[in-house]
Amino acid sequence: MTNPEPVYDVVWPLAPSAAPAGSLAARSPDLSGKTVGELWDYLFKGEEMFPLIRKALETRYPGIRFVEFEVFGSIHGRDEQELAATLPGLLRKHGCDAVISAVGA
Amino acid sequence: MLRAAAIAERAGVPSVSIVTTPFMQQAGVVSKGVGLPSLPIAEYPGVPMTDGSDAVARKVEALLPQLVAGLAGARDTARPAAAEPGPRDVVQRGSLDEIQEHFHRNLWSDGLPVIPPTLARVERFLEQTRRRPDEIIGRLLPENRAATVWSIAVNGVMAGCRPEYMPVLVAIVEAIAEPIFRVEDAGSTPGWEPLVIVSGPIAKRLDLNHGQGVMRVGRQANSSLGRFLRLYLRNVAGLRIPPGAGDKGSIAGSFNVALAEDEDAAAALGWSTFGVDQGFTRDDSVVTVQSVVSVSPPIYSAGTRALDHVRILAEVFGGACGYWSSIGMKYARWEPLLVLGPSIARVIADDGWSKDDLRRYLHEHVTITAQQAETYALQVGATSYTLEAHVKAGVLPAAYAASSDPERPVPVFVQPDKIGILVAGDPGRNQSKGYVNNHIQGGRVSKTVSA
Fold first, then answer.
1. Smallest CA–CA separation between B379 and chain A, in Å?
2. Domain shared by B297 and B244, yes or no
3. Which member of B9, B92, B95 has the closest CB to residue A25?
């Protein structure tokens, strides 16, 4: 007669979520007259995409203006953590009503 | 990129992020991790780096409705997350096979069998530390889970560690939780893998191999410590390859076994040990973790003078680093590691060379052309990168823009003091090996091992 196979009671290998609660910022339905900040990781052809986006949105939304990505510097560079700390202040300083962040690839 | 968008949203500024199709699943993990699962995304179809200008223009035009919808119309749509088990909750009861199946199905294993993490086993690990089980060592992005001492013990059990390894496991997690390690980028496409280096008396106490076959699976401490870290990154940082998400290593590699130094050999040369180079004493037990993105060929060198060896080391180690050095230059923080065979280190030291002499030699003699550096970086995705701009921005020393000649040589090793040098491997053979790290991702971090 063989021994019965052992039975194991096992625990969960993950850990509690530390994701902070949050909600999206309030939106304005019209981008006319708004200021849009460009956040770029300096990768994957953002330097081609942003000028195209600017041009297209400027024709559709009168008075829209852009704070170009050079103003913020790379959001994925050596100084990313420092930038993260200063970004809210920079957005306020430049009067950004919205941001486009690119490029995730 | 999504992290920046989340910061903007929390500052009251609406955002939309451009993400390419192959990264949409990872974007979902990151969005949840930053606590904003409904972060608006405009999906760029395909791979920008293989798109010509016409295709980029066409795809950007197609993105516009999504961009506008994200900025002007997005709202929170995520449902509250389902409740998750508590640490002591039994999540499955079954035979060994049933446990393996359950863990595989839930993506909780690395594809190899795991030791079932029973309460009794976990508690044996916890007895080896004075830390409270619910102590949080740090938060690990992208899934953003709390790295509790309890979760370290559970994954240590699963990886096949011994309970007495627990203080080392805690030190490993302390290291990867440091901001400079950037665990949030451990799922990036280069597919870098962390390397654990154990220094000081603990290495001998735990019977870590530092000799022949040091980087081969086969010694329990080396193997299971390395496996633990990969499992922990899957389960707590949330870095899973398909059918999971979060880990976008394009080809990537498997876990590295933990590395230990032949410290007696290093000391006999009159050289500092790796642990001492990291700022500790020889009596300190220390864990260092850094990224490794690729490994050099075995570097055989022969001769009785230091130059006989360092010339070959510069050629082969430097050559292995050359392509990736463009990324090291882009971020100007790069920490390659050279593992010198004891017999090689002996010749170099006997000829009067210090480790710093070797570092200086590598810095001065290993170069690529400026054009290669910029071309290599472009291939990875740095589409607007130039050495000149990085010098102007103060990221690189002036020597990198000494002229406008694209054929000018530039040093592969930006900061020679960041080259790690360690003595290990077969003392009976004349072989060394180099480990290339992934620039600022997986930056070298050392932590003291304590109970």
1. 10
2. no
3. B9
- Cβ pair B365, B318 in contact under 8 A: yes
Tell me whether 0.90 is exceeded by the ipTM.
yes
Look at A27 and B235 and tell me if their CB atoms are within 8 Å.
Answer: no
Pairing of strands B193-199, B145-148: unpaired
B135 and B205 inside one domain: yes
Contact residues, chain B, for A104 at CB < 8 Å: 1-2, 17-20, 23, 26-27, 41
pLDDT tens figures, B61-73:
999 999 999 999 8
Counting the structural domains of chain A, the total is: 1
Decide if A99 and B34 are in contact by the 8 Å CB cutoff.
no
For helices A46-60 and B53-72, what crossing angle results, to 10°?
Answer: 60
Q: Share the mean pLDDT of chain B.
A: 96
Q: Is the pLDDT of residue B80 over 80?
A: no
The Cα–Cα gap between B31 and B403 comes to: 44
Distance CA B40, CA B8 (A): 12
Regarding whether B130 and B57 lie in a shared domain, the answer is no
What digits encode the pLDDT tens for the residues B35-53?
999 999 999 999 999 999 9
Interchain contact A87–B (C-beta under 8 A): yes
Q: Give the count of beta carbons closer than 10 Å to the beta carbon of residue B152.
A: 29
Chain B residues with CB under 8 Å of A101 CB are: 1-2, 4-5, 8, 15-18
Q: Is A1 on the interface with B (CB under 8 A)?
A: no
* Contact status, residue A104 vs residue B24, Cβ threshold 8 Å: no
The pLDDT of residue B76 = 81
For residue B10, the number of C-alpha atoms closer than 13 Å in the C-beta half-sphere is: 19
Decide if B438 is inside a domain. Answer: yes
Starting at the edge strand found earlier in the chain, the sheet holding B41-44 runs A65-67, A35-40, A98-104, B15-20, B41-44
Q: Say how many domains are in chain B.
A: 3
For residue B3, is pLDDT > 70? yes
Encoding tokens for residue B97? 């096979």
Residue whose structure tokens are 């199905």: B105
Tokens for B417? 């003091």
Question: What's the pTM?
Answer: 0.95
Q: Give the pLDDT score at B303.
A: 98
Domain that holds residue B384: 275-448
Q: How many CB atoms lie within 10 A of CB B323?
A: 17
Where residue A1 falls among pLDDT bands split at 50, 70, 90?
low
pLDDT on residue B78: 75
CB within 8 Å of chain B, chain A residues 38-77? 39, 41-49, 52-53, 56-57, 60, 75-77
Please report whether residue B9 resides in a domain: yes
Q: Using CA atoms, how far apart are residues B124 and B117, in angstroms rounded to an integer?
A: 11
Q: Do B75 and A78 count as a contact with CB atoms less than 8 A apart? A: no
